[in-house]
Amino acid sequence: MTEIENYIKTADRQNQDCLKTIYQLMKDLLPDCQEKISYGMPTFWKGRNIIHFAAQKKHLGIYPGSGPIVEMSELFDQAGITYSKGTVQFPYNQELPLDLITELIKVAYKVNHKD
């Protein structure tokens, strides 16, 4: 079992499916990144942190850093998504906008990776 799989296993049971979905999506979109736990969160890393995600009490937090959030802020506003300088929040009681999250992961890779 990987560190990230263990993190998901220890999360609240009602949130595990959401975490598994995001983990699989990140694995599919970031196959050349290293997986680890950084700052207590599942992290995809390539030369530096690309993106993190974490189970919060009422939402899934995705942490791509400020650059990707600035680049996508208009899309988040249009979708009514809560975000701040370094995090995007997806409430557990709403369906995950997987198309938007996919774009966020791609932008995070483009902005954050080092070869």
Q: Your description of this structure?
A:
InterPro entries: YdhG-like. Pfam families: DUF1801. Residues 16-108 form the YdhG-like domain. This protein is of the alpha+beta class and 115 residues long. It has a single domain, classed as Aspartate Aminotransferase, domain 1 (Alpha-Beta Complex), CATH 3.90.1150. Helices cover 44% and strands 24% of the residues. The chain has four helices and six strands; from the N terminus they run ααββββαββα. It has helices at residues 3-10, 16-29, 66-79, 98-112, and strands at 34-38, 41-45, 49-55, 59-63, 82-83, 88-91. A six-stranded antiparallel sheet has the order 1-2-3-4-6-5. α2 (16-29) crosses α4 (98-112) and α3 (66-79) packs antiparallel against α4 (98-112). The protein is globular and about 35 Å long. The mean pLDDT is 96.
Which descriptors would you attach to this protein?
single chain, 115 residues, alpha+beta, Aspartate Aminotransferase, domain 1, 6-stranded antiparallel β-sheet, 6 strands
Short description:
The protein has 4 helices and 6 strands.
CATH topology: Aspartate Aminotransferase, domain 1
Sequence of strands across the biggest β-sheet: 1-2-3-4-6-5
Order of helices and strands: HHEEEEHEEH
Q: Quaternary arrangement of the chains shown?
A: single chain
User: What's the shape?
Assistant: globular
CATH class, anyone? Alpha Beta
Q: What CATH architecture do you see?
A: Alpha-Beta Complex
Tell me the number of structural domains.
1
Q: How much of the sequence is in beta strands? A: 15-25%
The strand count comes to 6
Largest sheet, described in full?
6 strands, antiparallel
Average pLDDT score: 96
- How many whole angstroms does the radius of gyration measure? 13 Å
Structural class: alpha+beta
Helix share bin: 40-55%
